[in-house]
Amino acid sequence: MTQRALITGITGMVGSHLADFLLAQTDWDVYGVCRWRSPLDNVAHLLGKVNKKERIFFEYADVNDEMSLLRVIRHVKPDYVFHLAAQSYPLTSFSAPVDTLNTNILGTCRLLEAIRFLMTEDSAYHPVVHVCASSEVFGKIPPEKKPATGIDEECQFHPASPYAISKVGTDLLGRYYAQAYGMTVMTTRMFTHTGPRRGDVFHESSFAKQIAMIEAGLIAPQVKVGNLDSLRTYADVRDAVRAYYMLVTCNPVPGAYYNIGGSYTCKVGDTLQTLLSFSPKKAEIQVVPDPQRFRPIDADLQIPDCRKFKAHTGWEPQIPFEKTMKDLLDYWRGRIQKGEQFLTR
């Protein structure tokens, strides 16, 4: 029987790339959980297959509605569950903390309860579940407490936003359900991962979109920025989804938790300079600080130690930082060339 994967948040950047990977690299059927109002931009290239029911199917549900989740789990009965759905933007969480906590913590709990409930109905059912937390759980680590080799799995949590707090809850819930109910649930703390389809609320994608809009003459030659001194370690989203596939297929360990991240570390300001280097307008573009783009507290030392995950799976990042940034910029150029309109954020 063909194996089935269920992806919550399939219409997001990561979910859409994971669907691409599974369709290309496996013979699995892919089921994507999305809300009826979810934007379909990131999965537009898959809609033909969805309409023809060629290995990919959409299931309408919401992580804030437990009955819809239970219906989907019962109907699909997935062998693998990738829980990616979330309120995923840290800055938004400062203005919408209750929604962030409800969606990310209770939404995860509702999904795991739905899976557990089906397991009680069918003792032979035992799916492999990936719960996606975030490197933001480590937050603003005091320099004196940062491990010399980078942030490892046992580093103390210092969440610096309601989003980060919500992901601490997500992380702990995944481990709890594995320990309490014998479920094969694993948790990941993925560090910054980006590439085509990255939302424009995130710094590197906002930079790329602004540059593309400047090139097209749509806005003045100014790139608005927040904190350029934060350190980030970048992975390409296409490497990230390959890591998630390896997580659930390489001897999955119930209750395991892993840091995953790329190998290229730089300041946010260096990321901006890399993107500007690809633009024929770079000499004309000014960099302008925007107070609205600064967080009240910033997670500013995001350097991972991924040895545990690499040792377990053999995964290594493959796509160079420069290619990731160039592909991201070209993604926005392509959308602008199609005549799409965007908020200048």
- Classify the fold: give the CATH topology of the domain at 4-195 and 236-262: Rossmann fold
- Poorly predicted runs are none
Order of helices and strands: EHEHEHEHHEHEEHEEHEEHEEHH
Q: Name the CATH architecture of the domain at 4-195 and 236-262.
A: 3-Layer(aba) Sandwich
Trace the largest sheet across and list its strands: 3-2-1-4-5-6-10
Task: Specify the helix fraction band.
Answer: 40-55%
Number of strands: 13
In DSSP terms, counting alpha (H) and pi (I) runs of 4 or more, how many helices? Answer: 11
The averaged pLDDT comes out at: 95
Class based on secondary structure composition and strand pairing: alpha/beta
The description of the largest β-sheet is: 7 strands, parallel
Instruction: Write down the overall geometry.
Output: globular
Radius of gyration: 20 Å
What is the distance, rounded to the nearest whole angstrom, between the alpha carbons of the first and last residues? 47 Å
**CATH superfamily annotation of the domain at 4-195 and 236-262:** NAD(P)-binding Rossmann-like Domain
Task: Tell me the name of the CATH class of the domain at 4-195 and 236-262.
Answer: Alpha Beta
Strand content: 15-25%
Describe the structure.
Helices cover 41% and strands 17% of the residues. The protein is α/β, with parallel strands linked by helices and 345 residues long. The protein has a domain at 4-195 and 236-262: NAD(P)-binding Rossmann-like Domain (Rossmann fold, 3-Layer(aba) Sandwich), CATH 3.40.50.720. The strands form 3 sheets. Strands 3-2-1-4-5-6-10 form a 7-stranded parallel sheet, with helices on both faces. Helix 2 links the parallel strand 2 (29-34) and strand 3 (56-60).
